[in-house]
């Protein structure tokens, strides 16, 4: 059984940088969740950027009770509920009160795949397990209870990749599921990775 101590967590300084740099550098890193003594999660393969001057961002109209996590210091988790049925997980970036975050759109499942399958109603197709923001939140049992959690802790965190990974190329594309700023190329994903939500 793998433990938190075997991972090299990303430190606070990683998240306090410019959002676009954080987004690029998150690709290939591990996004992990500890449930009791079990670590589940996998390699980040797709992300989206949301900035305070962006009409598609929750922070565009300022701080509210719902989006207050997005204004925390970089390195915290912003979890929101959408369409009355799905959760989405975002990594807050940059300085406190700035209002920027990176949406984790898809991960390549590596650790605790059987546990993740159970959270996804025993889905058998691994490629369809975490290839979307709602799917990965369901597979990792991420809900509003984890909103504002510190990623420097041991419950949900990002790590350097401890698994074999080949050199990869980053592609950029328009974001998905938004009504404003649909032309902005603020979605980034690992080229040809089969776990990306949409090419």
Strand and helix map with partners:
Blueprint: H1 12-15, H2 19-26, E1 30-35, E2 38-50, E3 77-82, E4 86-93, E5 100-111, H3 113-119, H4 133-139, E6 156-159, E7 170-173, E8 187-190
Antiparallel strand pairs: 1-2, 1-6, 2-5, 2-8, 3-4, 4-5, 7-8
In a few lines, what is going on in this structure?
By secondary structure, the chain is an alpha+beta fold. It contains 4 helices and 8 strands, in the order ααβββββααβββ. The chain has a single domain (4-190), classed as Roll (3-methyladenine DNA Glycosylase, Chain A).
Low-confidence stretches: none
> What is the second-level CATH architecture?
Roll
Tally of distinct domains:
1
Strand content is 25-35%
The number of helical segments is 4
Q: What is the CATH third-level topology name?
A: 3-methyladenine DNA Glycosylase, Chain A
Decide which structural class fits the backbone. alpha+beta
CATH top level is Alpha Beta
CATH superfamily: Methylpurine-DNA glycosylase (MPG)
What series of H and E elements makes up the topology?
HHEEEEEHHEEE
Helix content: 10-25%
> What best-fitting shape do the alpha-carbon axes yield?
globular
What is the rounded Rg?
15 Å
Intertermini distance: 34 Å
Mean pLDDT: 95
The profile of the biggest β sheet is: 8 strands, antiparallel
Number of strands: 8
